Structure to design on (446 residues):
């Protein structure tokens, strides 16, 4: 592993994109930042601007309106960026898959690097997914 | 010439100040984590962050904005911070004496990073950045007066000398300024000025992360953002060093004194971190009132007290 890659993996800054979710996944993502799970141990931080982000966390189903926004967010990000789809909604559409405003799961819109299924996934599952991503 | 370049680039300028500042910024994050019962980041985290931004990430330029100014601003910030660092650290660590009136020069140099942030933010053409820039400007206008009053108080205590190294040597002769009543008041006001200069909570309205998405920094990515991080690391070391030089007898890196010097810096940064962790963000209006009314009042009281020799 080169020096560049090492630094990148040691300092992943997260940006959270919530689609049309039921809000449960959002809460579980925020749980990862709490004292009990504390992702800052791995050097991860939640940042406020997509320009600084290294990981784009997408949760919730993506509907017609979210689609253009998600695309725009993805294009504005400074590359390389890792996209993680969180929750059943992010991975496949989940319970919203049959809805008539549904615009396809995340990987139909932007390339996804990791999927973390669950409805909602436990914080442990999210951490496990991130660790797997780090060791990839 | 070679000596000056060495001072500027390596010791005690750019490189040294940045490395120490990076470790201090780790210390700040670790203390924050402990305050919140977390474990906190690893020791070399600031270096990983810096090299990631510098080497890995792509730099994005604003489409509607002035690209040259946008890119030049962070470079000027680094230069301003390192020149200020050289002028502060040479006398504080007792390497060279500096010149007469260097306090005034340092005072101006220390405003360069904040000013360049504003210029860069306005050049990016982003409305949130412009909002952050205007807040930073208001903040500068309010704390700069307080800062100059604090310096006036210190100059008064030192018997009207405006040379930094003379102030330090006076303290080694007659005891530190922070040991007297007016010195303690000046110390407190100075701490709050540093807090605002570093844009830490409670005075982080210009970069409010949750409110205006990091405001003045919003458009920066890649290498320019790494430069801004570098500036922040340098400022995180030189401002406490300036405070210690002016009020607490400077730093001494010989023999056993090195331990005491490190403790002094860690103590000042600990104070900054604890203030940052126990306070909410204030609105910009409240911050202005806080400095213009209360901090100025305290500084003037300290000046009057020091006039009577207290
Ligand atoms: S995956 Fe489940 S918990 Fe998460 S947003 Fe969808 S419905 Fe809600």
């Amino acid at each position: 592993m080169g020096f560049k890659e090492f630094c990148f993996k040691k300092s992943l800054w997260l940006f959270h994109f919530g689609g049309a979710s039921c809000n449960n996944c959002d809460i579980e993502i925020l749980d990862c930042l709490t004292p009990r799970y504390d992702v800052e141990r791995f050097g991860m931080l939640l940042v406020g601007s997509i320009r600084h982000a290294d990981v784009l966390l997408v949760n919730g189903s993506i509907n017609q309106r979210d689609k253009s926004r998600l695309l725009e967010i993805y294009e504005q990000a400074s590359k390389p960026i890792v996209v993680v789809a969180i929750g059943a909604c992010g991975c496949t559409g989940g319970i919203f898959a049959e809805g008539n405003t549904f615009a396809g799961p995340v990987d139909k819109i932007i390339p996804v690097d990791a999927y973390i299924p669950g409805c909602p996934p436990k914080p442990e599952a999210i951490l496990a997914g991130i660790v797997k991503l780090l060791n990839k | 010439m070679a000596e000056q370049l060495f001072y500027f680039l390596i010791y005690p300028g750019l490189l040294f100040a940045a490395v120490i500042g990076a470790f201090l910024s780790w210390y700040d994050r670790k203390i924050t984590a402990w305050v919140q019962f977390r474990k906190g980041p690893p020791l070399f985290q600031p270096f990983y962050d810096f090299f990631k931004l510098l080497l890995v990430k792509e730099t994005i330029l604003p489409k509607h904005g002035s690209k040259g100014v946008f890119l030049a601003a962070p470079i000027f910030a680094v230069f301003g911070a390192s020149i200020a660092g050289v002028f502060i650290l040479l006398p504080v660590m007792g390497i060279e004496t500096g010149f007469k009136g260097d306090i005034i020069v340092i005072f101006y140099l220390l405003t360069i990073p904040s000013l360049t942030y504003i210029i860069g933010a306005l050049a990016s053409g982003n409305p949130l950045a412009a909002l952050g820039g205007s807040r930073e400007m208001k903040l500068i206008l309010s704390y700069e007066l307080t800062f100059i009053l604090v310096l006036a108080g210190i100059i008064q205590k030192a018997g009207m000398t405006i040379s930094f190294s003379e102030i330090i040597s006076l303290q080694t002769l007659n005891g530190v300024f922070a040991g007297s009543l007016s010195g303690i008041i000046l110390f407190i006001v100075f701490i709050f000025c540093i807090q605002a200069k570093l844009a830490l909570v409670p005075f982080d309205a210009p970069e409010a992360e949750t409110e205006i998405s990091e405001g003045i920094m919003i458009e920066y990515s890649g290498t320019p953002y790494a430069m801004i991080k570098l500036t922040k690391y340098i400022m995180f070391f030189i401002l406490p060093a300036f405070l210690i030089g002016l009020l607490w007898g400077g730093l001494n890196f010989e023999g056993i004194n090195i331990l005491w010097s490190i403790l002094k810096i860690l103590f000042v940064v600990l104070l900054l971190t604890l203030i940052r962790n126990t306070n909410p963000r204030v609105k910009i209006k409240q911050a202005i009132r806080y400095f213009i009314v209360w901090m100025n009042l305290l500084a003037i009281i300290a000046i009057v007290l020091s006039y009577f020799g207290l």
